[in-house]
Amino acid sequence: METDDLRVDGNAVAGLLDEVFGRELSAARARCDGCGAVAELGAHPVYAAPQAMGAVLRCRSCDSVMLVAVHGPGRYWLGLTGSTWLEIPDGSPLH
């Protein structure tokens, strides 16, 4: 399988983040710690294999890793070390 076969848009990670945060986050914005670009999570490329336990969200400007989300048995792991901040709109509905 080629790397390009694993690349989808940031909306692909929305379901996993919805499970973690209890709200839809594709419109949430994040700032890349690598280049300073700011964009909605849904606009960034995500790398995830079918049937994968998680996903890697990369900056659409510089390709730095911004977010890693993994769902394992009984827990979630969320890494945001490549993001300076994550802005979640107040109007996002909670489930």
Detailed description of the structure:
- With 95 residues, this protein is mainly beta.
- The chain has one domain (3-87).
- The protein has helices spanning 3-6, 14-21, and strands at residues 7-9, 29-32, 38-40, 45-47, 54-58, 65-72, 75-79, 83-87.
- The strands form 2 sheets. The protein has a 5-stranded antiparallel sheet. Strands 3-2-8 form a 3-stranded antiparallel sheet, with no helix packed on it.
- The N and C termini lie far apart (36 Å).
- The model has no long low-confidence stretch (mean pLDDT 84).
Order of strands across the widest beta sheet? 1-4-5-6-7
What gross morphology would you assign?
globular
Main sheet characteristics: 5 strands, antiparallel
What is the first-to-last residue Cα distance? Answer: 36 Å
Helix coverage percent: 10-25%
In N-to-C order, the SSE pattern is HEHEEEEEEE
Low-confidence stretches: none
Number of strands: 8
Q: How much beta, percentage-wise?
A: 35-45%
The tally of structural domains comes to 1
Provide the gyration radius in Å.
Answer: 13 Å
Tally of helical segments: 2
Class from helix and strand fractions:
mainly beta
Q: Mean of the pLDDT scores? A: 84
